[in-house]
Amino acid sequence: MQTTNQGAPVLSIDPFSDDGLENALAIDEAIRESGDVVYLEKYDTWFTGRHAHVDAIMRDFEQFESGAGTGMTNTRHQENWRKQSVILENNPPSHTKYRRIMTSVLSQRVVRRLRASFQEDADALVGRAIGGELNAAKEIAEAYPLHVMPNALGFQQEGRKHLLPYSYLNFNAAGPRNERYFRAVEEAGEAAEFVKWQIRREALDPDGLGRMIYGFVDEGELSEEDAGMLVRTFLSAGIDTTVFAIQFALKHLAENPDVWARLKADPSLARQVFEETLRFTPSSPFIGRTTTREVTVGEATIPAEKKVVVALAAAGRDPRRWERPDEFDLDRDASGHLAFGTGVHGCVGQMLARMEATSVLTALAQQADEIELVGEPEIFYSNWLRGFADLPMRITRAA
Question: Is 184 exposed, middle or buried, given 0-12, 13-18 or 19+ CB atoms closer than 10 A?
């Protein structure tokens, strides 16, 4: 196997081709097992899929920064399609203030206030959806977050059709500027303009999380523009990833009847089902960082100002970290998975994602009898997400 003069194996694989997306597990294994770090010459980018390195890189914001973008584009040298996020694509100490504000907005008190309405909405949606054959990818996994998250933020009903195209563009833009990205730009249409309009103070419901963020403007801690950017963060991190994570949870329940039987008997296991899903098949498989100086990882030396992509999906099945990593095991302690990141840039809204998913799985356990796949799932092709366009299922209603 060819190596760079920095000591990293050179791979000719393309994770972002159709073939790469259709064979994602093989791509993950190649990245993880070929070396501590591998170099993808097509993209002039370093990747690592070993849990220990992924964890260490994500915690080391001084040598692996987020301020140059969390995708494959180095936004210090190439213009991004949208303005940088003040929290996701920002470095301490500036990042620290925004993180503190978001943590305050998403306090335990706020989450507890939302929990009852999230469960009520999940109960109603699942009740309407089940009782026969359906595309669970759309009718459950997509429909639920697209309802509860905009409601929680205080978004208007008008224009919500733009939210998914906007998010699809955001995640495709994190990958290479390939045909898939340009198609997402075309399909997004007026989505970016709608989002700019929707994240303004005047467009948000006074009782939503969005207006809570603007409260920090009134206290002198944020500018109006920065407040809008924080509201926008929920779209980047709070809809698509949760949609696809719920899809995977539904698929795993259908493929593992013993797990479904246990969940049905004890709906409180919903959280465990979701955590093992996040380890086993994270919906967001990659996160990018940029080296601030020459850095050594394992046996490889990475030059300064180079993109390093941590492969979260590969790390979730690293046999160095997990026993029987390719088995979906409800009894596993899945804590330590990196689906939400870690360190100062760990997903600040992860408690909302967990609440969304556990609400849906709890409702399903309480209302459904049998759950099964009735066809081959259809892949959703995205540079930076994994999931399904069609998840054909039969879900029968409990007597």
Answer: buried
